[in-house]
């Protein structure tokens, strides 16, 4: 299947909390706690996608964007990549711009708590756990 690239953002506030979203996932018929993210526009830099999706879904913006790598989410069937982007130093204050059918609740969590909750089954998105593990590898002090 030909699929566009996806981006999962890991927005971290100046006090070390990660901005997460809770949203309904239709395929799983369940609420899911996960990092904000979405589809990259054709030719769009994943760092730009992360910033845009974070602002639209959460109202948080700014900070420094750093790539934490990429993976093939399902290489047996799909040709796309999933990118992980750390956004350090985000602040609330931008207007949200949700899509017509999006209902998203924003949660601020310590990264270790976010990982614990994802592992406890509060997500249906497998890449959410991998994104948090990439964050832990890149910034272990946030998990202390």
Characterise this structure.
The chain has 144 residues and is of the alpha+beta class. It has a single domain (6-143), classed as Nucleoside Triphosphate Pyrophosphohydrolase (Alpha-Beta Complex), CATH 3.90.79.10. 26% of the residues lie in helices and 33% in strands. The chain has 3 helices and 9 strands, in the order ββββαβββββαα. The chain has helices at residues 46-58, 111-122, 126-138; strands spanning 6-12, 18-25, 30-34, 37-39, 60-61, 64-71, 82-88, 91-92, 104-109. It has a 4-stranded mixed beta sheet with strand order 4-1-7-6, sandwiched between helices. It has a 3-stranded antiparallel beta sheet with strand order 3-2-9. A hairpin with a 4-residue loop joins β2 and β3. α2 packs antiparallel against α3. The longest helix has 13 residues, at 46-58. The radius of gyration is 14 Å and the shape is globular. The chain starts with 5 loop residues before the first strand and ends in a 6-residue tail after the last helix.
């Amino acid at each position: 299947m030909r699929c566009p690239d996806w981006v999962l953002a890991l927005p971290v506030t100046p006090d070390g909390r990660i901005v997460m979203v809770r949203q309904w996932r239709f395929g799983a018929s369940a609420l899911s706690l996960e990092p904000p993210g979405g589809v990259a526009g054709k030719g769009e830099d994943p760092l730009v996608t992360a910033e845009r999706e974070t602002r639209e879904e959460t109202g948080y913006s700014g900070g420094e964007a750093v790539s934490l790598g990429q993976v093939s989410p399902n290489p047996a069937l799909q040709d796309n990549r999933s990118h992980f982007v750390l956004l350090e130093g985000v602040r609330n204050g931008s207007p949200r711009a949700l899509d017509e059918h999006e209902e998203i609740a924003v949660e601020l969590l310590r990264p270790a708590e976010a990982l614990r909750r994802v592992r406890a089954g509060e997500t249906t998105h497998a890449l959410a756990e991998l994104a948090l593990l990439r964050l832990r590898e890149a910034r272990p002090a946030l998990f202390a």
